[in-house]
Amino acid sequence: MSFQTYPSALLEATVNEFAKLPGIGRKTALRLVLYLLRQPTSDVEKFGNTLLRLKHEIHYCKECHNISDTDVCSICADRGRDRAIICVVENIKDVMSIENTQQYKGLYHVLGGIISPMEGIGPSDLEIESLIERVSQKGGIQEIFLALSPTMEGDTTAYYIYRKLAPFSIAITTIARGIAIGNELEYADEITLGRSIVNRTVFTY
User: Fold this and answer.
1) Are the C-beta atoms of 70 and 63 separated by less than 8 Å?
2) What is the secondary structure of 57-97 as a DSSP string?
3) Measured between alpha carbons, how far apart are the two ends of the chain, in Å?
4) Which spans in the chain are helix H?
5) What letter would DSSP give residue 25?
6) For the packed helices 152-165 and 129-137, what is the interaxial angle rounded to 10 degrees?
7) What is the pTM of this model?
8) How do the domains of the chain map onto residue ranges?
9) Does domain 9-57 have CATH number 1.10.8.420?
């Protein structure tokens, strides 16, 4: 195994931080850091300040837990959305994927993950109880649309939510199986995902 020798401890420390990002190896991290060093100071300051603002100023919608610039995201605040249906997704990327299909006009609920015993993620680690509270406290909800990836973990999470929602008189639907079993939702093409949303089916187990 070869080891990289750095001419500067600060350079090495910066490379180490970049290498913590997913999909970024040490060689790529070094290339990115050296690129930033060649840029005007004002551009690098803008880059750094944007990251700091992202961390300090970003909000999570108090209704659906989507990322937002305000306490309530633009989707939840949009009175033109169908408030009778809530689409349950694993993460913010799934909200973006579904919105890109332009086939869904209801509200969302972001779980922040899926149940995965192998990774130590249980129901209490997710925004499941807040979903139950939304259904129990807000009138007019007629459908919960479970748009979770058709993986073992996604199906386990969907079944858990299905059992928790059983006492309520609402329809529980899921994406049509145009999405291949075992595929992550974010990697589905927009046409397939859009058709799966339009043709969603009653959730059964």
Assistant:
1) no
2) H-EE-TTT--EESSSS-HHHH-TTSEEEEEEEESSHHHHHH
3) 50
4) 9-18, 26-38, 41-57, 74-77, 92-101, 129-137, 152-165, 190-198
5) -
6) 40
7) 0.77
8) 9-57, 72-202
9) yes
Token couple for 52: 């700091």
User: pLDDT tens digit string along 71-121?
Assistant: 999 999 999 999 999 999 999 999 999 999 888 999 999 999 999 998 999
Q: Which CATH number fits domain 72-202: 2.60.120.260, 3.40.640.10, 3.40.50.300, 3.40.1360.10?
A: 3.40.1360.10
Which tokens go with 91?
A: 């993460």
Instruction: Answer for the pair 113, 91: CB distance below 8 angstroms, yes or no.
Output: yes
Residues ≥6 apart with Cβ < 8 Å to 69 = 57, 58, 59
